[in-house]
Amino acid sequence: MKQFPEVQGGGSLILAWQVRNKHILVVGGGEVAAGRILNVLNADAKVTVVCPAEGLNDEVAFRVAQKQVTHIDRNFLPEDLDGVDMVLTAVDDPAASTQVWTLCKERRIPVNVADVPPECDFYFGSVHRDGPLQVMISTNGNGPKLANIIRRRIAACLPDNTGGAIRKVGVLRRKLRKMAPAQEEGPKRMQWMSKVCEKWSLDDLCEMTEEDMNWLLQYYKSGIVPSLEELRLANNPVAPVFDGSFGCTKISFADLARNDEDFAKIFKANKGHIDYQNPEHVQLLTKSLLKRDFGLQIELPSDRLCPPVPQRWAYIQWISRLLDSTTPTFPTPANPNRPITGIDIGTGASAIYPLLACATHPTWKFIATELDVHSITSAAFNIALNNLAGDITLHRPSLGSSVDLLGPPCTPPLLPPLPPGPIDFTMCNPPFFASQSELSATWTKSTPPSAVCTGSESEMITPGGEVAFVTRLVAESAAPGTRDRVQWFSSLLGRLVSLRPVVEALRQAGCANWAVGVLRPGGKTRRWVVAWSWGAWRPSGVRLPPFLSLHCGC
Ligand SMILES: C[C@@]1(CC(=O)O)C2=NC(=C\c3[nH]c(c(CCC(=O)O)c3CC(=O)O)Cc3[nH]c(c(CC(=O)O)c3CCC(=O)O)/C=C3\N/C(=C\2)[C@@H](CCC(=O)O)[C@]3(C)CC(=O)O)/[C@H]1CCC(=O)O
Ligand SMILES: NC(=O)c1ccc[n+]([C@@H]2O[C@H](COP(=O)([O-])OP(=O)(O)OC[C@H]3O[C@@H](n4cnc5c(N)ncnc54)[C@H](O)[C@@H]3O)[C@@H](O)[C@H]2O)c1
Fold it and tell me: Confidence class of residue 514 from pLDDT cuts 50, 70 and 90?
């Protein structure tokens, strides 16, 4: 048989009576009246007090003087009840009390006569108030003092921020109703709001900012409720250690100079400017930014590429977002501490990608490949310098034991032998140019390059340029035994014109899951990034900082 709640008679109906702008008459102006007046003023009623002026206690006199209430300076008269919605009586004259009660009953006006339960349509209760929260205790006339004690005890148990949390929930509910106003959305709205209240602690609700609310509301459609931590991790445009000086804003050299003596020297010597055509300046800028924003130290050979930190960091962030959006649980934010393995193809003398990634993601591991002996030696030095040898493994592709001296120069595969276990991504900064003349052509363009290039030939030039390079990578990635081992393959592209042929190569290889993005971290230089997967998880709903973008295709 179905169980229904048992009826427990003898109680009263506890309501939250809305008396805003209702006319309430208070008869008497002593201590009890003062309490009643405060109660009804807190509920925004229009209050009139009838009581001889000499009978007003300090508090009531204050309310009269402040014009918080209207005062009638005499004893009660029946006409005082005209147009009144409720009456509260607190006088030391039982006969007057009874007269008020009788008249109110004739006129069907609800009335409370303090201390005279039989002459009350409703009793007051002991009330705890914290912003929008009100807790009322009633002992139904049995023990008013106990009501007071119980109320205090309950209030003491409530967390300090209860009122604040309730206020935030109110704002969130109003926003949700505005976003999904349809009547038929009601059940879904209510279910989702209930989930938020159940899942979030009062502390978290209290801490919820307007921005958090807007992010949170984006999950409404899916019915999912992430925790505050998950929400912030998923939508925080920058890793916590990063101070945000890249991105859309310009790097403050003055600030950098304050943090770094070496940088300060050249900055001051050059009258507050950086000479981007001076290799020493460019190298110092890179070193200084890595030190200040990522706690990284590097040494760079003067004849190798000096990596622009904002661009490199933007690629790491882009990859990180791509991975976050392609987990089995998306859009529930992925665990930021899950292990991630990446491969950097051609890590260069700086090993900048693995260094940046591992310095900001403690659970990421890298395999970094490098063909050039000079560069790999320097990369090993930089990895050791930052105590990251446990996280970053260097691999030098072998040219093979039997080099055919008569045939074309032997080129080893771009991808290293894959280690056991899942590999989350590969990344690559390919040589952009097809020939020395193509490289030189960019130097003689009407707009010269914004910074000096110290890259070696092997870093800058590859037969067929970056399109041929990435097309090779696409072919390698498609091989059986490789395609299922890596979730995302990716590469940077130096030129927009390379995007179309690369995407075409992907289509021809039968790849239907790819994404392209533009990296535009502040400066003039734009770079493009392409990623492809032979798996089924597609990027969607990725929130990217304004200087990164993502387009998905098939
Ligand atoms: C809760 C509170 C709200 C408020 O008034 O705002 C309230 N009384 C409070 C205090 C209080 N009142 C009294 C004492 C002395 C100690 C004691 O008697 O316990 C104390 C303690 C103190 O002053 O600390 C004397 C008293 N009260 C009533 C009678 C007549 C009777 O019982 O017959 C007598 C004379 C008894 C006698 O002569 O012996 C009657 C009522 N008082 C009620 C409410 C209603 C029932 C609420 C309930 O049962 O929960 C009810 C029925 C009608 C009404 O007035 O609405 C407020 C605490 C607010 C706070 O939290 O601070
Ligand atoms: N419910 C409660 O919690 C509670 C607690 C304590 C006292 N009481 C009772 O409440 C009543 C008021 O208590 P108090 O401490 O405020 O007393 P009080 O003596 O401080 O105030 C009485 C007020 O009534 C006014 N008054 C008297 N006759 C009047 C009339 N005909 N018209 C208008 N005003 C009139 C007086 O000028 C005075 O301002 C008493 O009966 C007291 O026993 C109730």
Answer: confident
**113 bridge partner residues:** 89
CB of residue 302 inside a 6 A radius of ligand 1 = no
State mean pLDDT over 292-296. Answer: 90
Q: Residues near 375 by Cβ (< 8 Å), separated by ≥ 6?
A: 301, 304, 347, 348, 349, 456, 459
Residue 213's CB is within 10 A of a number of other CB atoms, namely: 16
**In a 3-state reduction of DSSP, which class is residue 162?**
helix
Q: Distance between alpha carbon 86 and the CA centroid of its chain, in Å?
A: 49
Dist. CA 318–CA 544, nearest whole Å: 8
Token duo for residue 262: 């070496």
Confirm or reject: Cβ of 331 under 6 Å from ligand 2: no
Q: Is residue 491 within 8 Å of residue 471, measured between CB atoms?
A: no
pLDDT of residue 246: 39
As a whole number of Å, the end-to-end CA separation of the chain is 57
Q: Three-state SS across 26-89? A: EECCCHHHHHHHHHHHHCCCEEEEECCHHHCCHHHHHHHHCCCCEEECCCCCHHHHCCCCEEEE
How large is the C-alpha radius of gyration of the chain? 36
Rounded CA gap, 341 and 419, in Å? Answer: 10
Cross-strand partners of 493:
528
pLDDT exceeds cutoff 50 at 85: yes
Can 115 be counted among the known catalytic residues?
yes
At 467-513, the pLDDT tens digits run 999 999 999 999 999 999 999 999 999 888 888 899 899 999 999 88
Q: Name the residue of 148, 149, 150 whose CB sits within 8 Å of the most ligand 1 atoms, as the mutation to test its pocket.
A: 148
Q: Which domains does the chain have, with CATH numbers?
A: 23-124 (3.40.50.720), 163-235 (no CATH), 308-328+335-396+412-439+449-532 (3.40.50.150)
Is the Cβ–Cβ distance between 305 and 453 less than 8 Å? yes
Cβ contacts of 204 within 8 Å, gap of 6 or more: 227, 228
Report residue 127: phi and psi, to 5°. Answer: -115, 130
The C-alpha atoms of residue 543 and residue 287 are separated, in whole angstroms, by: 30
| Ligand 2 contacts CB of residue 52 (under 6 A) | yes
Minimum-distance ligand to the CA of 112? 1
pLDDT at res. 16: 96
Residue minimizing CA distance to atom 23 of ligand 1 = 145
Q: What are the φ and ψ backbone dihedral angles of 191, each rounded to 5 degrees? A: -60, -45
Q: Distance, CA 145 to ligand 1 centroid (Å)?
A: 6
Residue 514, sorted as left (phi over 0), alpha (psi -120 to 50) or beta, turns out to be beta
- Do residues 71 and 49 touch, judged by C-beta distance below 8 A? yes
**DSSP H helix total and E strand total for the chain:** 19, 15
